[in-house]
């Protein structure tokens, strides 16, 4: 059924996962209002797993380093003599940045960057965030509806940056059919020297291989899943280097 194994989740997700009318309304209204007219759309999904120690400054620096390294957004013109507003031209392009996060600090930082200074090539950058709920609200249907809407909105972007270990992020890039740029996780000893790396597949990734076989009701041999399932090794990254399993990608 699927000669190209990389597209399995993309096709099944698009075919089987249908938002309710309420969620689809959230998606279409936001997309038509802020994203539809842009020439390019960049989705940024930032997930912080420990809300008590929200490292906003470190994560912001890592996000900016990834954007600069991969040239995902235009550089700012730091020339003080440059006009605050770039002169319009026929060839001027626009880029919409969609920020999906429980926190607004990353959206505010990027918005102020491109509001206070123009880009060197005159490209117009708009930064938008649908919601910032601060905490994950389990059991709240409206909160869940907003989350699903943002997953789909990320899936409508041309380029996606996601957080490692995030189900939210890998469902979004799977729906989009894109190989995302993955932000590496801080394990207490700081972020790796390389802020992000492009995944080697668009498929969602298991953080850990499943160990229970629901058909036989026995614990399964995870080695038998290779090469179909690979464990996400980022949790083992303790020395600020890419683990050997990630030489060709982030999964």
How does this structure look, described?
By secondary structure, the chain is an alpha/beta fold. It has 2 domains: 201 residues, Rossmann fold; 40 residues, no CATH class. Strands 3-2-1-4-5-6 form a 6-stranded mixed sheet, sandwiched between helices. It has a two-stranded antiparallel sheet with strand order 7-8. Helix 2 packs across helix 5 and helix 5 packs across helix 6.
Briefly summarize what is shown:
It contains six helices and eight strands, in the order H-H-E-H-E-H-E-H-E-H-E-E-E-E.
Radius of gyration: 19 Å
Taking the sheet with the most strands, its summary is: 6 strands, mixed
Helix/strand order, N-terminal first: HHEHEHEHEHEEEE
- How far is the first residue's CA from the last residue's CA? 24 Å
- Mean of residue pLDDT? 80
Shape: globular
Look up the CATH topology of the largest domain.
Rossmann fold
- The CATH architecture assignment of the largest domain turns out to be 3-Layer(aba) Sandwich
Strand content: 5-15%
Oligomerization state: single chain
Low-pLDDT residue spans = 231-251
Give the number of helices: 6
- Structural class label: alpha/beta
Tally of DSSP β-strands: 8
In spatial order, strands of the major sheet run 3-2-1-4-5-6
CATH class of the largest domain: Alpha Beta
Percent range for helical residues? 25-40%
Number of domains: 2
